[in-house]
Write a structure and sequence with these properties.
Strand order of the largest sheet: 1-2
Radius of gyration: 22 Å
Number of helices: 10
Number of strands: 2
Helix content: 55-70%
Largest sheet: 2 strands, antiparallel
Order of helices and strands: HHHHEEHHHHHH
Shape: elongated
């Protein structure tokens, strides 16, 4: 194997989510040009030795890059950087959310998108949009009152805000991710007491109703504040959960 290949792969560091870390590092090497179009990647064994991760982690990371069109495999020859490695699509899949830190990164992304969307929705929403949002909000309230996660209903409510922007690209962006944008697997409701779950449900209802009221009343600044407050509080709750499990 060339020394250059060794130098590239020696820069990969371990992290709690090894697959994502390895895939991200390889992606960065490809996008920076350190790994050039058509260049052969080191063998799985060489990557394992250089990074200290298992063969399973290496294969999962390479599969993720293959799915994004960044690398190709040739029977009996190994993996190669694609001739045109520029990613053509972006997505978040369940395996990307293997840690609370990854969930927090998704929340950062959502905050950037939904902050602007909430403001536009307040300016542009129609009565049909308000009726749709009310239906989604009622469904979310019902799910929370019944003690459920309400992830699907939560996703539907937030998507209805994006639809109300009258800019179809917002809705299409959320459709790319699906309800994984509401990472219910980390909510840990099953570990809450009955009283804690009630408080959690009440808090979620208050935050969502504040967003809805601002958009309904065409109050653009309030809509932006409400969605930012909601997502910021969600991030703070996940940070507390992360710190409590360290």
């Amino acid at each position: 194997m060339a020394d250059k290949d060794n130098a590239v792969f020696n820069t990969i560091q371990q992290a709690p989510n090894l697959r994502s870390n390895l895939a991200d590092m390889l992606t960065a090497q490809i996008e920076s040009g350190d790994l050039k179009p058509g260049q052969r990647l080191p063998t799985e064994q060489a990557i394992m030795i250089a990074t200290g991760v298992s063969r399973t982690i290496v294969r999962e990371a390479l599969a993720a890059l293959r799915a994004k069109g960044l690398i190709t495999t040739r029977q009996g020859l190994g993996a190669f950087v694609s001739n045109d490695p520029t990613p053509r699509s972006f997505s978040i899949i369940p395996n990307d959310l293997q840690s609370i830190d990854e969930v927090l990164r998704v929340l950062e992304l959502r905050m950037g998108v939904e902050y602007e969307a909430a403001g536009l929705a307040a300016l542009r929403r129609t009565q049909e949009d308000i009726d749709r949002m009310q239906d989604r909000l009622d469904a979310l309230d019902k799910a929370l009152e019944e003690g459920g996660y309400g992830a699907q209903e939560d996703y539907a409510f937030h998507r209805s805000i994006l639809v109300a922007t009258q800019n179809s690209y917002y809705g299409r962006l959320f459709d790319t991710f699906g309800n994984i944008m509401v990472p219910r697997q980390w909510a840990r409701l099953d570990k809450m007491t009955s009283a804690e779950r009630k408080r959690h449900a009440a808090r979620m209802r208050r935050e969502h109703h504040a967003i809805f009221a601002a958009i309904r009343d065409r109050d653009e600044p309030a809509a932006r504040r409400a969605i930012r407050s909601h997502l910021s509080k969600s991030a703070a709750r996940f940070e507390e959960l992360r710190d409590a499990t360290v």
